[in-house]
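Hi there, hope your week has been kind to you so far. For a while now I've been wondering how a particular protein folds. I'm sending you its amino acid sequence along with the backbone structure tokens. Could you read through the record and tell me how the tokens relate to the sequence? Take your time with it, there's no hurry, and the full record follows here.
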Amino acid sequence: MSTLTIAANDIIDSIADALQFVSHHHPVDFIEALKRAYARETKAPARAALQQLLINSRQSAFAQRPVCQDTGVAHVYFRVGMDVRISAPDEPCTPSFQTMANRATARAYCFPQNKLRASMIEDPLGARRDTHDNTPAVVHVELVEGQTFEVTVAAKGGGGDVKARYAMLNPSDSIADWVISQIPTMGAGWCPPGAIGIGVGGSPEQAMFLAKRAVLNPIDIEELIARDPSNPTEALRLELYERINELGIGAQGLGGDTTVLDVKVESLPSHAALKPVAILPNCAATRFIKFTLDGKGPAQFEPTPMSVWDDIPDTLPNTGGRRVSLDGITKEEIATWQAGDTLLVSGRILTARDAAHKRMADTLARNEPLPVDLTGRTLFYVGPVDPVGDEVVGPAGPTTSTRMDKFMPQLMGECGLLVTIGKAERTPIAMDAIKAAGGAYLMTTGGAAYLVSKSIRSAKLLAYEDLGMEAIYEFEVVDMPVVVAVDASGTTVYRHFHLVEA
């Protein structure tokens, strides 16, 4: 029987090019689904968020810069025929699939013209050090008959994975009812709208794998609606699509008509007494591509035709938002903001996220002064991509604010912090701190990082340089679009979630 020979270097080149490509190019079916959601959205805040996502998608593709500052963990799915041979004549031994994926990931994430954010850490139980090249990749290998060599490359952001849900249901339990019960607990940190993957059956770890793989299927819910379901899997997809959108969570959790663009379901046989079910969402920074190698060289990726963004503006139009200076902001002015208001904020703001917050808390516990004065300041939860060319900062969208909630009483109550900017809902401990301080929480659109970065005019490193993208910076921003998500009275725009303490 003949054997298909594929060069290891072609595999590495293809994966590296794919990771670069998906960093700035959404799949076409995802763009089209976003456009449909935007066209039918009836709620103004959600419609504005959808427009920002579409503008960001267009700008990122044109500039070839990341759609989101969380450029994701590299996932590589190999589907390899048993009659395929990997050739590496210049190496002492043929590299493993993990080695090839790691080499490609390091090359892609350190590419000088479009350097991507390194988010992977090693020693997770200890020092939690950044690996600096986003390795290792997550690798799955499926061996099949024949000469197949198919690869799926995805960059999966943390916002979607952190919202994963799993349960072992009884065989008679309703999968749909359980999924619907979980959606309001997931919050908005996964940056809806996106697709949701459902994995059913197999063993516990297989169910989660199925859910993650399911979101890599094409968006085709409109076709399913048009022809009606033909089997139980399609019936479950359609039921969940309708019921989830009826919850009214909407884009970015702001309340709206579209929360999911599609529901994908994959299943496997399982033990008769078991019904494992997993949920895993794909966020508004949907990034994946599939390709096949035939031994004739690396894969080629054609840019998305710009016509797919027809009728989408090049830049953010005048939203009519109220212009606000954050320099010297007072509690009296903040008190005039109401939840749901659209603002265009300018001025000097600080940045900090998980690691910086932990270090500040440890400093305060030792009764030592912080490296920055938070009195009357605004803090943006962000870990930007490194700048390239003439950029002052790379794509710089918000991270999920909830992770910082436990620090809010101290930073607002004792250190004088007044305003925070991030994405998604806040838990009661944070909302109580905001109300007690007479401050506010502002949200900016998650998944629109390149668009947000356009409002940042300067970036100055202030503290914790060793934390890399988690260091404390001072940004000067001009007309950054935000929505008042929690106002000084404690009123929030996030009314569709079951909030819990951080």
User: Anything to note?
Assistant: The chain is about 30% helix and 25% strand. The chain has three domains: 1-26+67-153, 157-292, 322-486. The longest helix spans residues 44-63.
